[in-house]
Amino acid sequence: MRLTILGGGGFRVPLVYGALLGDSAEGRVTQVVLHDLDAGRLSAVARVLAEQAAGVPDAPEVTVTTDLDEALRGADFVFSAIRVGGLEGRAADERVALDQGVLGQETVGAGGIAYGLRTVPVAVDIARRVARLAPDAWVINFTNPAGLVTEAMSRHLGDRVIGICDSPVGLGRRIAKVLGANPREAWIDYVGLNHLGWVRGLRVAGRDELPRLLADPELLGSFEEGKLFGPEWLQSLGAVPNEYLHYYYFNREAVRAYQEAEKTRGAFLRDQQARFYDEMKRPDAAALTAWDRTRAEREATYMSENRETAGAGERDADDLSGGYEKVALALMRAIARDERTTLILNVRNRGTLSVLDTEAVIEVPCLVDANGAHPVAVDPLPGHATGLVCAVKAVEREVLSAAESGSRTTAVKAFALHPLVDSVNVARSLVDGYTSVHPGLAYLK
């Protein structure tokens, strides 16, 4: 089986390859094609993968290419993890937003909209090429903003594109652990959009154990989300939100923390990864050792500003292991081998949430088999969550419309309608700021 990874020079690619190395079952991935626009980054990542594969019998063969069409031909699965504009673009997204006093995070608020406006046209081009060159391939999208990009691609690929994210998986794992349950045996009642969802129940042997957690402030404050949001707020919600909802529930504090930070997250990662790729220019550099060291630092500082604002302290060691690569592998296994499983994925709504239309991409538990991912029926969201989901989905639709039409006016509308951008004038300034720093937004007229 052949897997093509778009964004193959990206820093997290070795996580995916590491997961593949642990799969020895029949029908496994035997060929990995890395595609990237940057040949130097491709070479660096290929060195890391070669060291990972050392001593592993029948390790998947790795090839690299800067030719997109070549990468797609013959693919059984396409894993999309591109970053349009690179980390320099992410840093610029943050700076422009913070200059206007609003959030610049890469998937939430103004930063997420800017990233989406840059990324959607590229993702749509990829989707069209996949439809033409590899019509039987399944596309697994990890490119952020994951829900928005998956929806853009689904207009050309239908249900053959599925979005993944490790946030819901990590959240469910942490809740199960603190309740003393096996995450593999728990049913996680999770629903929302990507980076905008809530765990409303965790059932073990048919019994919902979440009320027990919500009734115990000490237990509730013992894991990442409890520390981040505080037990009292979680009890008020009657649910455990995805960590990204901290940007909504504590927006002023988050913006202030980012403004006061020595570096934004994007600038930190830009500089950190630049050091790694520079180190890889030395032929004698130990590639895997350098990558492991850089990854540990990256994950330990994840959402550090939010945790500092909440007084949440350092991340637990168990939360530093990623997880999206495991979701991707489980998804590929389920489809390729008809190994039926349940995963929280980004898929078309198809009536699952009645407040959204059938084509809207949502993030919910899905039953996965050889025919793809099928969303499971869920109870309606409470009013406060419905309002946020509908508002953010409306913004995503304006982003898609602006990307398709090239309308600057529609782009302003997308910014202005977002709950974390509280002014039409600020929205206009944001569009001015982003178009001035991103050549990829020159299409907005």
TrEMBL record:
<dbReference type="InterPro" id="IPR022616">
    <property type="entry name" value="Glyco_hydro_4_C"/>
</dbReference>
<dbReference type="Pfam" id="PF02056">
    <property type="entry name" value="Glyco_hydro_4"/>
</dbReference>
<keyword id="KW-0520">NAD</keyword>
<feature type="active site" description="Proton donor">
    <location>
        <position position="166"/>
    </location>
</feature>
<dbReference type="InterPro" id="IPR001088">
    <property type="entry name" value="Glyco_hydro_4"/>
</dbReference>
<feature type="active site" description="Proton acceptor">
    <location>
        <position position="244"/>
    </location>
</feature>
<dbReference type="InterPro" id="IPR015955">
    <property type="entry name" value="Lactate_DH/Glyco_Ohase_4_C"/>
</dbReference>
<keyword id="KW-0533">Nickel</keyword>
<dbReference type="GO" id="GO:0046872">
    <property type="term" value="F:metal ion binding"/>
</dbReference>
<keyword id="KW-0479">Metal-binding</keyword>
<keyword id="KW-0408">Iron</keyword>
<comment type="similarity">
    <text>Belongs to the glycosyl hydrolase 4 family.</text>
</comment>
<dbReference type="InterPro" id="IPR019802">
    <property type="entry name" value="GlycHydrolase_4_CS"/>
</dbReference>
<dbReference type="GO" id="GO:0005975">
    <property type="term" value="P:carbohydrate metabolic process"/>
</dbReference>
<keyword id="KW-0378">Hydrolase</keyword>
<feature type="binding site">
    <location>
        <position position="165"/>
    </location>
    <ligand>
        <name>Mn(2+)</name>
    </ligand>
</feature>
<dbReference type="GO" id="GO:0004553">
    <property type="term" value="F:hydrolase activity, hydrolyzing O-glycosyl compounds"/>
</dbReference>
<feature type="binding site">
    <location>
        <position position="144"/>
    </location>
    <ligand>
        <name>substrate</name>
    </ligand>
</feature>
<dbReference type="InterPro" id="IPR036291">
    <property type="entry name" value="NAD(P)-bd_dom_sf"/>
</dbReference>
<feature type="domain" description="Glycosyl hydrolase family 4 C-terminal">
    <location>
        <begin position="190"/>
        <end position="421"/>
    </location>
</feature>
<dbReference type="Pfam" id="PF11975">
    <property type="entry name" value="Glyco_hydro_4C"/>
</dbReference>
<feature type="binding site">
    <location>
        <position position="195"/>
    </location>
    <ligand>
        <name>Mn(2+)</name>
    </ligand>
</feature>
<dbReference type="GO" id="GO:0016616">
    <property type="term" value="F:oxidoreductase activity, acting on the CH-OH group of donors, NAD or NADP as acceptor"/>
</dbReference>
<protein>
    <submittedName>
        <fullName>6-phospho-beta-glucosidase</fullName>
    </submittedName>
</protein>
<feature type="binding site">
    <location>
        <position position="90"/>
    </location>
    <ligand>
        <name>substrate</name>
    </ligand>
</feature>
<feature type="site" description="Increases basicity of active site Tyr">
    <location>
        <position position="106"/>
    </location>
</feature>
<keyword id="KW-0326">Glycosidase</keyword>
<keyword id="KW-0464">Manganese</keyword>
<keyword id="KW-0170">Cobalt</keyword>
